[in-house]
Amino acid sequence: MFRKLLKSLSSHLFLIFFTIVSIGPFIWLISTALKSNVENIFAYPPRFIPEHITFQNFIDAWNQVPFMGYIINSTIVTVATIILNLLFASLAAYPLARMEFKGKNYTFFATLATMMVPFQVIMIPLYLLTLRLNLVDSNGAVAGFLGMILPFGVSAFGILLMRQAFMAIPKELEEAAIIDGCNVFQIWFRVLMPLVKPSLATLAIFTFVGCWGEFLWPSIVLTKQEMFTLPVGLNYLQGFFSSNWRLISAGAIISTIPIIIFFLALQKHFVGGQTQGAVKG
User: Fold this and answer.
1) Phi and psi angles of residue 238, each rounded to the nearest 5 degrees, phi first
2) What contacts 159, CB < 8 A, 6 or more positions away?
3) What is the tens place of the pLDDT at every residue in 178-227?
4) How buried is residue 37: exposed, middle or buried, by Cβ count under 10 Å (0-12/13-18/19+)?
5) CB-based contact 192:94 (threshold 8 Å)
6) Residue 103, exposed/middle/buried by CB under 10 A (0-12, 13-18, 19+)?
7) Which of these, 269, 279, 281, 280, lies nearest to 86 by C-alpha position?
8) b/e string for 213-230 if b means 16 or more Cβ within 10 A?
């Protein structure tokens, strides 16, 4: 009994320690954003609790750059990317999970192999392709948005997640739908898709987090400030010779609020989606 209690206590202490390590930077970010200009944010030992809490940094950060425009641009790019990922990943995963055709396994493994290629490796060819297709903001807002959305319209991770989710569904449901006269598309849309909603929610969350915080690609393809997404726009809070870390921290916190809201809205499906996608076919 004592050994079991000691093991449980050590496990909880281990988890508490890593939780503190994980959320420590975010707590420091909030502390910096709430400190007034008279406080030294680099004081030693560091003070997590501000002496005089102020929200003026959030107001100044909001007024210094066109936050609302950046948020609208990020929302357009993120929502479109999520929709394309859910659609294309599900369409690609369905035949890999439920159909038999020549080269099926090679196709699946080739898709997985793309996950091992860093984005920096394909960044220059992708940029040249984007220029050749005129998908840059110098050709209009629509072209600029397409240049940011299309390269991330589907991912190997999404295909893997949805394939595993489809494979966890009994084939008897599909056979019953065929007897009722459903075609392949109707089976995918009306039978299988409603059953993999947890995996769809999980994929939506991962896509949202990755797309909302993407900085490298938008900073490459965008040239007009009115087209900037939120991560690129936040870079303007940093000066050329000095940086107001209070404003930068406040802006970073504002940019994380949509991620927290989106996760809380879909969190009841998140754990179920991870478990569903982890089932071995």
Assistant:
1) -95, 125
2) 89, 92, 93, 96, 111
3) 888 888 889 999 889 998 988 998 899 999 999 998 999 999 998 888 89
4) exposed
5) yes
6) exposed
7) 269
8) ebeebbebbbeeeebbbb
Please report, to the nearest 10 degrees, the dihedral formed by the alpha carbons of residues 138, 140, 142, 147 taken in order. -10
- 63-67, 76-80, 231-235, 246-250 — which one is most confidently predicted on average? 76-80
For the chain, the average pLDDT equals 86
* Cα-based distances in Å from 21 to 18, 26, 140, 259: 5, 10, 44, 20
Three-point CA angle 84, 89, 92, nearest 5°: 125
Helix 56-64 / helix 245-277 crossing angle, nearest 10 deg: 90
The CATH superfamily holding the domain 64-277 is: MetI-like (1.10.3720.10)
Domain ranges (residues) in the chain: 1-54, 64-277
In this prediction the pTM is: 0.84
Percent of the chain with pLDDT over 70: 93
Give the torsion through C-alpha atoms of 196, 198, 199, 204, to 10 deg. Answer: 120
Instruction: Return d(Cα 239, Cα 253) in angstroms, integer.
Output: 19
């807002």: which residue's tokens?
141
Write the pLDDT tens digit of every residue in 91-120.
999 999 988 888 888 999 999 999 998 898
For 10, what's the count of Cα atoms within 13 Å in the CB-facing half-sphere? 6
